[in-house]
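Escalated from tier 1: zinc ion holo job.
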Amino acid sequence: MKTLTILKPDDWHLHLREGLVLKNIIHFTSEYFGRAVIMPNTKTPITSIDSANFYKKSILESLPEGSSFEPLMTMYLTDDTDKEELINGFKNNVFFAAKLYPANATTNSSHGVKRIENLYKIFESMEDNGMPLLIHGEVTDSDVDVFDREEVFIDRELSPIVVRFPKLKIVLEHITTSYAVDFVQQNYIGATITPHHLHINRNAMFFGGLNSDFYCLPVAKRENNRLALIKAATSGKECFFLGTDSAPHLRKWKAFCGCAGIFNSPVAIESYLTVFEEENSLDNFEKFASLNGPNFYNLPPNKEKLKIVSRPNKIAEFIDVVEEKNIVGQIKPFHSGETLKWEIDGIIN
Ligand SMILES: [Zn+2]
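Tier 2 regenerated the structure:
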Protein backbone atom coordinates (compact mmCIF):
# COMPACT_ATOMS: atom_id res chain seq x y z
CA MET A 1 0.00 0.00 0.00
CA LYS A 2 1.50 3.33 -1.10
CA THR A 3 1.42 6.19 1.38
CA LEU A 4 1.86 9.88 0.72
CA THR A 5 2.42 12.44 3.45
CA ILE A 6 2.28 16.12 2.52
CA LEU A 7 1.94 19.41 4.36
CA LYS A 8 -1.75 20.15 4.88
CA PRO A 9 -3.12 21.75 1.68
CA ASP A 10 -5.14 24.93 1.19
CA ASP A 11 -8.00 25.52 -1.23
CA TRP A 12 -7.37 28.81 -3.04
CA HIS A 13 -10.85 28.98 -4.64
CA LEU A 14 -13.97 27.71 -2.90
CA HIS A 15 -17.73 28.33 -2.85
CA LEU A 16 -19.22 27.57 0.55
CA ARG A 17 -22.72 28.92 -0.08
CA GLU A 18 -24.85 29.89 2.95
CA GLY A 19 -27.28 28.59 5.53
CA LEU A 20 -28.11 24.91 5.52
CA VAL A 21 -25.86 23.99 2.58
CA LEU A 22 -22.90 25.73 4.23
CA LYS A 23 -23.54 23.87 7.50
CA ASN A 24 -23.72 20.53 5.71
CA ILE A 25 -20.68 20.83 3.44
CA ILE A 26 -18.05 22.86 5.26
CA HIS A 27 -16.54 19.87 7.06
CA PHE A 28 -15.44 18.37 3.74
CA THR A 29 -13.04 21.29 3.41
CA SER A 30 -12.27 22.17 7.02
CA GLU A 31 -11.13 18.65 7.93
CA TYR A 32 -8.29 18.45 5.45
CA PHE A 33 -7.51 21.99 4.30
CA GLY A 34 -5.84 24.64 6.46
CA ARG A 35 -7.29 27.66 4.68
CA ALA A 36 -9.60 28.44 1.80
CA VAL A 37 -10.27 31.55 -0.24
CA ILE A 38 -14.03 31.99 0.03
CA MET A 39 -15.81 33.26 -3.05
CA PRO A 40 -18.12 36.25 -2.48
CA ASN A 41 -20.91 35.37 -4.96
CA THR A 42 -23.46 34.60 -2.28
CA LYS A 43 -27.11 35.39 -3.07
CA THR A 44 -26.43 38.94 -1.95
CA PRO A 45 -22.78 39.39 -2.93
CA ILE A 46 -20.17 40.31 -0.34
CA THR A 47 -19.49 43.95 -1.22
CA SER A 48 -18.78 45.54 2.17
CA ILE A 49 -16.75 45.03 5.32
CA ASP A 50 -19.94 44.40 7.28
CA SER A 51 -21.24 41.73 4.93
CA ALA A 52 -17.83 40.00 4.86
CA ASN A 53 -17.67 39.97 8.65
CA PHE A 54 -21.22 38.63 8.86
CA TYR A 55 -20.51 35.88 6.31
CA LYS A 56 -17.23 34.95 7.98
CA LYS A 57 -19.01 34.66 11.33
CA SER A 58 -21.59 32.30 9.84
CA ILE A 59 -18.78 30.18 8.35
CA LEU A 60 -16.92 29.99 11.67
CA GLU A 61 -20.15 29.09 13.48
CA SER A 62 -20.71 26.22 11.02
CA LEU A 63 -17.30 24.64 11.64
CA PRO A 64 -17.00 21.41 13.58
CA GLU A 65 -15.87 21.99 17.16
CA GLY A 66 -12.16 22.57 17.64
CA SER A 67 -11.53 23.24 13.94
CA SER A 68 -8.56 25.47 13.11
CA PHE A 69 -9.75 26.07 9.53
CA GLU A 70 -9.27 29.66 8.37
CA PRO A 71 -11.67 31.19 5.81
CA LEU A 72 -10.00 33.94 3.75
CA MET A 73 -12.69 36.40 2.71
CA THR A 74 -12.95 38.23 -0.61
CA MET A 75 -14.79 41.32 -1.75
CA TYR A 76 -16.98 41.14 -4.83
CA LEU A 77 -16.06 43.99 -7.19
CA THR A 78 -18.91 45.86 -8.85
CA ASP A 79 -19.21 48.97 -10.98
CA ASP A 80 -19.85 50.85 -7.73
CA THR A 81 -17.14 49.38 -5.51
CA ASP A 82 -16.06 51.85 -2.85
CA LYS A 83 -12.26 52.04 -2.97
CA GLU A 84 -11.92 53.14 0.66
CA GLU A 85 -14.06 50.24 1.86
CA LEU A 86 -12.01 47.78 -0.18
CA ILE A 87 -8.59 49.01 0.90
CA ASN A 88 -9.63 49.53 4.54
CA GLY A 89 -11.02 46.00 4.58
CA PHE A 90 -7.74 44.70 3.22
CA LYS A 91 -5.59 46.69 5.65
CA ASN A 92 -7.72 45.49 8.57
CA ASN A 93 -7.52 41.84 7.52
CA VAL A 94 -11.21 41.57 6.68
CA PHE A 95 -10.53 41.00 2.98
CA PHE A 96 -7.79 38.72 1.75
CA ALA A 97 -8.37 39.64 -1.91
CA ALA A 98 -10.87 41.14 -4.34
CA LYS A 99 -12.79 39.05 -6.87
CA LEU A 100 -13.60 40.26 -10.35
CA TYR A 101 -16.59 38.69 -12.08
CA PRO A 102 -17.50 40.08 -15.47
CA ALA A 103 -21.28 40.67 -15.25
CA ASN A 104 -23.24 37.42 -15.70
CA ALA A 105 -20.17 35.20 -16.08
CA THR A 106 -21.38 32.60 -13.57
CA THR A 107 -23.72 31.77 -10.65
CA ASN A 108 -24.89 34.91 -8.82
CA SER A 109 -22.68 37.21 -10.87
CA SER A 110 -25.37 39.54 -12.22
CA HIS A 111 -23.89 42.26 -10.00
CA GLY A 112 -20.49 41.80 -11.69
CA VAL A 113 -18.53 44.42 -13.54
CA LYS A 114 -19.87 45.74 -16.85
CA ARG A 115 -16.85 47.84 -17.89
CA ILE A 116 -13.57 46.65 -16.43
CA GLU A 117 -11.72 49.88 -17.32
CA ASN A 118 -13.94 51.64 -14.78
CA LEU A 119 -12.07 49.71 -12.08
CA TYR A 120 -8.57 50.82 -13.11
CA LYS A 121 -8.41 53.37 -10.27
CA ILE A 122 -9.24 50.55 -7.87
CA PHE A 123 -6.61 48.25 -9.40
CA GLU A 124 -4.09 51.07 -8.92
CA SER A 125 -4.81 51.19 -5.18
CA MET A 126 -4.75 47.41 -4.93
CA GLU A 127 -1.37 47.37 -6.64
CA ASP A 128 -0.04 50.06 -4.25
CA ASN A 129 -1.32 48.14 -1.23
CA GLY A 130 -0.36 44.63 -2.35
CA MET A 131 -3.97 43.42 -2.46
CA PRO A 132 -4.46 40.38 -4.73
CA LEU A 133 -6.96 40.46 -7.62
CA LEU A 134 -8.70 37.17 -8.37
CA ILE A 135 -10.27 36.98 -11.80
CA HIS A 136 -13.03 34.93 -13.37
CA GLY A 137 -11.53 35.20 -16.83
CA GLU A 138 -14.36 35.05 -19.33
CA VAL A 139 -16.02 37.65 -21.50
CA THR A 140 -19.80 37.38 -21.53
CA ASP A 141 -20.68 38.90 -24.91
CA SER A 142 -23.34 36.85 -26.60
CA ASP A 143 -21.47 36.98 -29.92
CA VAL A 144 -18.42 35.22 -28.43
CA ASP A 145 -18.64 31.42 -28.47
CA VAL A 146 -18.89 29.97 -24.96
CA PHE A 147 -15.80 27.82 -25.61
CA ASP A 148 -13.72 30.85 -26.66
CA ARG A 149 -14.58 33.16 -23.78
CA GLU A 150 -11.43 32.60 -21.74
CA GLU A 151 -9.09 33.27 -24.65
CA VAL A 152 -10.98 36.38 -25.70
CA PHE A 153 -10.95 37.62 -22.10
CA ILE A 154 -7.19 37.17 -21.92
CA ASP A 155 -6.62 39.17 -25.09
CA ARG A 156 -9.22 41.82 -24.54
CA GLU A 157 -9.17 42.42 -20.78
CA LEU A 158 -6.36 40.65 -18.96
CA SER A 159 -3.45 41.59 -21.24
CA PRO A 160 -4.06 45.35 -20.81
CA ILE A 161 -4.41 44.91 -17.02
CA VAL A 162 -1.13 43.00 -16.76
CA VAL A 163 0.69 45.67 -18.83
CA ARG A 164 -0.79 48.59 -16.96
CA PHE A 165 -0.41 47.16 -13.44
CA PRO A 166 2.81 45.15 -13.53
CA LYS A 167 3.05 44.82 -9.75
CA LEU A 168 -0.59 43.87 -9.17
CA LYS A 169 -0.83 40.35 -7.75
CA ILE A 170 -3.22 38.59 -10.14
CA VAL A 171 -4.66 35.09 -10.07
CA LEU A 172 -6.49 33.82 -13.12
CA GLU A 173 -8.95 31.43 -11.53
CA HIS A 174 -9.94 27.93 -12.67
CA ILE A 175 -8.06 28.07 -15.98
CA THR A 176 -9.37 25.82 -18.74
CA THR A 177 -7.20 26.36 -21.83
CA SER A 178 -3.64 25.85 -23.03
CA TYR A 179 -3.81 29.53 -24.00
CA ALA A 180 -4.28 30.45 -20.33
CA VAL A 181 -1.51 28.07 -19.24
CA ASP A 182 0.92 29.86 -21.56
CA PHE A 183 -0.28 33.34 -20.62
CA VAL A 184 0.10 32.69 -16.89
CA GLN A 185 3.67 31.48 -17.29
CA GLN A 186 4.70 34.29 -19.60
CA ASN A 187 3.25 37.04 -17.45
CA TYR A 188 4.24 35.95 -13.94
CA ILE A 189 0.73 35.79 -12.60
CA GLY A 190 -0.81 32.87 -10.66
CA ALA A 191 -3.52 30.40 -11.65
CA THR A 192 -5.72 27.90 -9.88
CA ILE A 193 -6.65 24.62 -11.51
CA THR A 194 -9.71 22.56 -10.52
CA PRO A 195 -9.88 18.76 -10.24
CA HIS A 196 -12.73 18.53 -12.74
CA HIS A 197 -10.90 20.41 -15.49
CA LEU A 198 -8.11 17.84 -15.16
CA HIS A 199 -10.56 14.94 -15.58
CA ILE A 200 -13.18 15.96 -18.11
CA ASN A 201 -13.24 17.55 -21.51
CA ARG A 202 -16.33 19.07 -23.07
CA ASN A 203 -17.61 15.71 -24.30
CA ALA A 204 -18.63 14.91 -20.70
CA MET A 205 -21.51 17.38 -20.88
CA PHE A 206 -23.02 15.61 -23.88
CA PHE A 207 -22.51 11.97 -22.87
CA GLY A 208 -25.75 10.00 -22.46
CA GLY A 209 -27.88 13.05 -23.24
CA LEU A 210 -27.32 16.56 -21.96
CA ASN A 211 -25.55 16.02 -18.65
CA SER A 212 -25.54 18.98 -16.29
CA ASP A 213 -23.41 17.06 -13.74
CA PHE A 214 -20.38 18.17 -15.71
CA TYR A 215 -21.55 21.68 -16.49
CA CYS A 216 -19.46 24.33 -14.81
CA LEU A 217 -18.15 27.77 -15.74
CA PRO A 218 -15.81 28.18 -17.39
CA VAL A 219 -16.99 25.10 -19.28
CA ALA A 220 -14.55 22.26 -19.89
CA LYS A 221 -12.88 22.61 -23.27
CA ARG A 222 -11.31 20.33 -25.91
CA GLU A 223 -9.06 17.42 -24.94
CA ASN A 224 -5.84 19.23 -25.96
CA ASN A 225 -6.67 21.87 -23.35
CA ARG A 226 -7.23 19.28 -20.64
CA LEU A 227 -3.83 17.77 -21.45
CA ALA A 228 -2.19 21.19 -21.17
CA LEU A 229 -3.82 21.72 -17.77
CA ILE A 230 -2.57 18.33 -16.56
CA LYS A 231 0.94 19.20 -17.67
CA ALA A 232 0.76 22.55 -15.88
CA ALA A 233 -0.70 21.25 -12.61
CA THR A 234 1.65 18.30 -12.32
CA SER A 235 4.74 20.30 -13.35
CA GLY A 236 5.29 21.63 -9.83
CA LYS A 237 5.76 25.12 -11.33
CA GLU A 238 5.18 27.84 -8.76
CA CYS A 239 2.49 29.73 -10.68
CA PHE A 240 -0.01 26.84 -10.60
CA PHE A 241 -1.83 25.90 -7.42
CA LEU A 242 -4.82 24.07 -6.03
CA GLY A 243 -8.24 25.74 -6.21
CA THR A 244 -11.17 23.35 -6.31
CA ASP A 245 -13.88 25.81 -7.37
CA SER A 246 -16.14 23.34 -5.57
CA ALA A 247 -19.62 24.77 -6.07
CA PRO A 248 -22.51 22.75 -4.63
CA HIS A 249 -26.04 22.96 -5.96
CA LEU A 250 -28.95 21.05 -4.48
CA ARG A 251 -29.83 18.14 -6.75
CA LYS A 252 -33.30 19.48 -7.52
CA TRP A 253 -31.82 22.67 -9.00
CA LYS A 254 -28.86 21.04 -10.70
CA ALA A 255 -30.95 18.34 -12.33
CA PHE A 256 -33.84 20.53 -13.49
CA CYS A 257 -32.18 23.88 -14.15
CA GLY A 258 -28.68 22.68 -14.97
CA CYS A 259 -26.96 25.36 -12.86
CA ALA A 260 -23.22 25.72 -13.40
CA GLY A 261 -20.94 24.26 -10.76
CA ILE A 262 -19.38 20.97 -9.70
CA PHE A 263 -19.26 19.90 -6.05
CA ASN A 264 -15.86 18.31 -5.59
CA SER A 265 -14.75 19.09 -2.03
CA PRO A 266 -15.59 15.57 -0.70
CA VAL A 267 -13.13 14.06 -3.23
CA ALA A 268 -10.84 16.89 -4.28
CA ILE A 269 -7.54 15.57 -2.91
CA GLU A 270 -8.19 12.04 -4.14
CA SER A 271 -9.29 13.36 -7.52
CA TYR A 272 -6.15 15.45 -8.02
CA LEU A 273 -3.97 12.57 -6.84
CA THR A 274 -5.43 10.23 -9.45
CA VAL A 275 -4.14 12.61 -12.13
CA PHE A 276 -0.75 13.16 -10.49
CA GLU A 277 -0.25 9.40 -10.22
CA GLU A 278 -1.18 8.83 -13.86
CA GLU A 279 1.43 11.43 -14.80
CA ASN A 280 4.08 9.88 -12.52
CA SER A 281 4.20 13.19 -10.69
CA LEU A 282 3.24 12.30 -7.13
CA ASP A 283 6.44 14.05 -6.02
CA ASN A 284 5.04 17.36 -7.25
CA PHE A 285 1.66 17.08 -5.53
CA GLU A 286 2.78 18.80 -2.33
CA LYS A 287 4.02 21.80 -4.33
CA PHE A 288 0.70 22.14 -6.14
CA ALA A 289 -1.50 21.50 -3.09
CA SER A 290 0.42 22.95 -0.16
CA LEU A 291 3.41 25.10 -1.17
CA ASN A 292 2.86 27.08 -4.37
CA GLY A 293 -0.25 28.88 -3.09
CA PRO A 294 1.25 30.09 0.21
CA ASN A 295 4.40 31.03 -1.67
CA PHE A 296 2.43 33.13 -4.17
CA TYR A 297 0.47 34.87 -1.41
CA ASN A 298 3.52 35.31 0.89
CA LEU A 299 2.01 33.17 3.62
CA PRO A 300 3.65 30.40 5.63
CA PRO A 301 2.66 26.87 4.62
CA ASN A 302 0.51 24.92 7.07
CA LYS A 303 2.37 23.04 9.79
CA GLU A 304 0.21 19.93 10.12
CA LYS A 305 0.52 17.09 7.66
CA LEU A 306 -1.99 15.10 5.67
CA LYS A 307 -1.58 11.39 5.18
CA ILE A 308 -3.11 9.81 2.08
CA VAL A 309 -2.98 6.11 1.24
CA SER A 310 -3.61 4.21 -1.95
CA ARG A 311 -6.58 1.93 -1.35
CA PRO A 312 -9.97 1.58 -3.06
CA ASN A 313 -12.19 4.52 -2.14
CA LYS A 314 -15.83 4.25 -3.19
CA ILE A 315 -17.32 7.71 -3.59
CA ALA A 316 -20.88 8.24 -2.41
CA GLU A 317 -23.48 8.78 -5.12
CA PHE A 318 -25.07 11.63 -3.21
CA ILE A 319 -24.28 13.71 -0.16
CA ASP A 320 -27.32 14.28 2.05
CA VAL A 321 -28.28 17.74 3.21
CA VAL A 322 -29.65 17.30 6.71
CA GLU A 323 -31.77 19.61 8.83
CA GLU A 324 -32.51 18.53 12.39
CA LYS A 325 -31.81 14.90 11.48
CA ASN A 326 -34.15 14.97 8.46
CA ILE A 327 -32.76 14.66 4.96
CA VAL A 328 -34.05 17.73 3.14
CA GLY A 329 -31.95 17.56 -0.03
CA GLN A 330 -29.02 15.95 -1.78
CA ILE A 331 -25.94 17.13 -3.64
CA LYS A 332 -24.17 15.00 -6.22
CA PRO A 333 -20.39 14.99 -5.73
CA PHE A 334 -17.82 14.80 -8.49
CA HIS A 335 -16.82 11.15 -9.13
CA SER A 336 -20.24 10.13 -7.79
CA GLY A 337 -20.39 6.33 -7.48
CA GLU A 338 -16.85 5.82 -8.80
CA THR A 339 -14.08 4.02 -6.94
CA LEU A 340 -10.93 6.12 -6.72
CA LYS A 341 -7.53 4.72 -5.84
CA TRP A 342 -6.59 7.09 -3.05
CA GLU A 343 -8.11 7.84 0.31
CA ILE A 344 -7.27 10.35 3.02
CA ASP A 345 -6.06 8.60 6.13
CA GLY A 346 -5.96 11.60 8.44
CA ILE A 347 -4.05 14.56 9.79
CA ILE A 348 -0.70 14.20 11.50
CA ASN A 349 0.13 16.94 14.02
ZN1 LIG B 1 -15.66 29.77 -8.69
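The chain is about 35% helix and 20% strand.
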